[in-house]
Amino acid sequence: FQVKSENKETIWNTEEVPEGSEFDDTWDPREKPEYEISFKQHVGTEDVFFGMTGKDPSTACCEDIVIKIKLPETKYSDITLDIQDKVLDLRTPKKKLLLHLPYPVNSKEGRARFLSEEEVLEVTLRRKLDFLNFS
């Protein structure tokens, strides 16, 4: 099995390189912050009582991914956040997190808020739904 490349000098094809690897820096001394991933599902009475939409409690039926990142001793202005379809890249002066997301997301539809009392950044991302996982 050979992959044809347009340039004979290249040693790999661009499809072989995972998304977000350009951000991966193994030599960066910053510590990785604690984080928690949870899933959010929008349900109505037609789901709860009648089961009309076919949704179940699994993550496959969830529309949103919520990531809570603990950032002690960090100001909102120090946070740099970049969201790609499959990667979350967070950087502060003391912390760095490169997180490969469990599902592809719509990078333009997300939102983030910094809870200063709890010192937590909460990022909510809308999943891209495929032919198996649809609402």
Automatic annotation (TrEMBL):
GO terms assigned for molecular function: dynein intermediate chain binding; protein-folding chaperone binding
Domain PIH1D1/2/3 CS-like intervals: 32-125
Biased composition (Acidic residues): 16-26
Superkingdom of the organism of origin: Eukaryota
Cellular component terms (Gene Ontology): cytoplasm
InterPro entries registered for this protein in UniProt: DNAAF6, HSP20-like_chaperone, PIH1D1/2/3_CS-like
Region (Disordered): 1-29
GO biological process: axonemal dynein complex assembly; flagellated sperm motility
Similarity comment text for this entry: Belongs to the PIH1 family.
Protein's recorded name: PIHD3 protein
